[in-house]
Amino acid sequence: MADRVVLAYSGGLDTSVGIGWLKDATGKDVVALAVDVGQGGEDMDAIRQRALDCGAVESVVVDAKDEFADDYLVPALKANALYQKRYPLVSALSRPLIAKHLALTAKQLGADSVAHGCTGKGNDQVRFEAAVAAIAPDLTSVAPVRDLALTRDKAIVYANEHNLPIEQSKKSPYSVDQNVWGRAVETGFLEDPWNAPIEDLYSYTQDPTVPRDADEVTITFEQGVPVAIDGQRFSVLRIVQELNALAGKHGVGRIDVVEDRLVGIKSREVYEAPAAIALIAAHEELESLTLERDVNRYKRGIESEWADLVYDGLWFGGLKRSLDAFIDHTQQHVSGDIRLQLHGGRATVTGRKSEQSLYDFDLATYDTGDTFDQSLSKGFIELWSLPSKISARRDAAN
Asked: Which residues form a coiled coil (predicted)?
């Protein structure tokens, strides 16, 4: 049915108005697709019904929370993925999953196009369309806000004229995107990077300056994947949810950053990602215990490249898939337990153990009985510094 377009539907003003706007502009019937990635808030059944009430010929809701955790958050955790060393790719990780279901739904329905509610100024337009192009290159992507001049004031007028069942009066001063991995807040007074965040904009985390007793938690990993909290096994999704609550109580994972968008502008963003920051801290520490020095060093550069690729919308690209293969190979011995103390906005590692550990007490100890042969060090240093010595002599002669 090439006379249909599948719209990534959030239930908000822009995508709700976008249903009729797309129909009017393209002449195609609109299928609304809502993907649950753990964003919370409204009931997904209510969102499904709203899409129908706004004129969608069909409304599809996909519960992708476990898929998101297992297939998108786990690779990000194995990669210790932080864009510009700060941002745990909250929105960037959900977009390829949503785009995947957009493309699959369009193919199943025989539609020839998909749509999303992104503007022309952000990263998400690239992430959606690059992912769709990689999965279903024959599909056309349409963006009502960007391509069809659907501005917010026009959206409000359209909604009123057509009696659409959406609230326009309760306008948040911020633009918010969230999923189970974290929450992103922008616009409003945050657009001035001198303005400090206020407590009202946070939802996943509590004020870390409020006095409260510290909590300790032990996270168990198997080949880089978190499998248990304090000895109790859970799904990855459940572990993330539990740590969001536990680390969020202590204000862990608040991030205030000016980041470089893919489209060439700088943007001030405030994030809160308690589980993501706690898990990355634990995972990195376990790697320090179980990976060889050269592997750990080399992997740090790979992690930065991986985060850049995902931020830039190339989740399904060839280089990212190749980096996944390298990262997966490094995780074969990343199994063990990490103890974290959660307190005052920080997740601090206080203990680590692993049957795959490369830490040898007998080599490391400075007490009598250590097995390290210190007599070998003198010759090692002579050879190690030989190139420096030779070049220094040359420099001194010139």
From this structure: none
Each residue's pLDDT tens digit, 244-284: 999 999 999 999 999 999 999 999 999 999 999 999 999 99
87 is in an annotated binding site: yes
Pairing of strands 266-272, 254-260: antiparallel
Q: How big, in percent rounded to 5, are the helix, strand and coil portions of the chain? A: 45, 20, 35
Of 14, 29, 177, 312, catalytic: 14
Residue 304 known to be catalytic: no
Query: Could you tell me the pTM of the whole model?
Result: 0.94
Place of tokens 């785009």: 99
276 is in an annotated binding site: no
Q: Is 338 helix (H, G, I), strand (E, B) or coil?
A: strand
How far is it, in rounded angstroms, from Cα 293 to Cα 291?
6
Render pLDDT for 320-331 as a digit per residue (tens, 0 to 9): 999 999 999 999
Q: What is the mean pLDDT of residues 375-391?
A: 95
Nearest to 133 by CA among 100, 105, 93: 100
Residue 14 marked ligand-binding: yes
Among residues 124, 177, 312, 337, which one is catalytic? 124
The pLDDT-based confidence of 142 (bands split at 50, 70, 90) is very high
Q: How many CA atoms lie within 13 A of 274 on its CB side?
A: 27
Q: Active site includes 36?
A: no
- Is 83 known to sit in a ligand binding site? no
From the list 4, 48, 50, 95, the catalytic residue is 95
95 is catalytic: yes
Is 163 assigned a ligand-binding role in the annotation?
no
User: Is 124 a catalytic site residue?
Assistant: yes
Tokens coding 55: 């004129």
Could you give the domains of the chain? Answer: 4-171 (3.40.50.620), 176-291+334-353 (3.90.1260.10), 370-397 (no CATH)
Distance, in Å, from the CA atom of 212 to the CA atom of 355, rounded to the nearest integer, reads 34
Question: Which string of b and e fits 72-90 if b means at least 16 CB within 10 Å?
Answer: bbbbbbbbbbbbeeebbbb
Residues β-bridged to residue 176 = 185
Residue 248 is labelled as binding a ligand: no
Q: Which of 172, 175, 385, 391 is catalytic?
A: 175
Instruction: Identify each DSSP E strand in 25-75 by its residue range.
Output: 29-36, 58-63
